[in-house]
Automatic annotation (TrEMBL):
<dbReference type="InterPro" id="IPR036418">
    <property type="entry name" value="Cyt_c_oxidase_su6a_sf"/>
</dbReference>
<comment type="pathway">
    <text>Energy metabolism; oxidative phosphorylation.</text>
</comment>
<dbReference type="Pfam" id="PF02046">
    <property type="entry name" value="COX6A"/>
</dbReference>
<keyword id="KW-1133">Transmembrane helix</keyword>
<keyword id="KW-0999">Mitochondrion inner membrane</keyword>
<comment type="similarity">
    <text>Belongs to the cytochrome c oxidase subunit 6A family.</text>
</comment>
<keyword id="KW-0496">Mitochondrion</keyword>
<keyword id="KW-0812">Transmembrane</keyword>
<keyword id="KW-0809">Transit peptide</keyword>
<keyword id="KW-0472">Membrane</keyword>
<dbReference type="GO" id="GO:0030234">
    <property type="term" value="F:enzyme regulator activity"/>
</dbReference>
<dbReference type="GO" id="GO:0005743">
    <property type="term" value="C:mitochondrial inner membrane"/>
</dbReference>
<dbReference type="InterPro" id="IPR001349">
    <property type="entry name" value="Cyt_c_oxidase_su6a"/>
</dbReference>
<dbReference type="GO" id="GO:0006123">
    <property type="term" value="P:mitochondrial electron transport, cytochrome c to oxygen"/>
</dbReference>
<protein>
    <recommendedName>
        <fullName>Cytochrome c oxidase subunit 13, mitochondrial</fullName>
    </recommendedName>
</protein>
Length: 127
């Protein structure tokens, strides 16, 4: 039982040395597989560098321009609303704000996403 440990250690050491020698021997030979693998690694490195540059130098300005465009469109939208007549003077058609029963929250007439700046409902004023 005592002799088994040194034998196992020697076997592990021998296999590790043999593996290292085989790897050195096969790594030194240039075959089609090794050349293709090296080419793939170089291509991956170049592609990674390209996308890193795109992410750093292209995306932030694009996001900034898109945000500026959205801000301008938002302001134009509300400027258009300021030229419209007040909510109380607008015509309410029968297909707008149909209520078959009251909502279980609030005053029962306003939806969960009611916005007083945009939404208006006058029960008495329908054409």
């Amino acid at each position: 039982m005592i002799a088994q440990r040194p034998i196992a250690r020697a076997a592990l050491r021998f296999t590790a040395q043999a593996r290292a020698q085989a790897q050195r021997r096969f790594a030194s030979t240039e075959n089609a597989f090794a050349a293709e693998r090296r080419h793939v690694k170089e291509h991956a490195k170049a592609t990674t560098e390209l996308w890193r540059k795109i992410s750093i130098y292209t995306v932030p300005p694009a996001l900034l321009l898109a945000g500026l465009n959205a801000y301008n469109l938002w302001n134009e939208h509300w400027e258009h609303w300021s030229h419209m007549p007040p909510l109380e003077e607008r015509v309410e058609y029968p297909y707008q704000n149909i209520r078959t029963k009251n909502f279980p929250f609030g005053n029962g007439d306003e939806t969960a996403f009611w916005n007083s700046d945009v939404n208006y409902h006058n029960k008495d004023k329908t054409t």
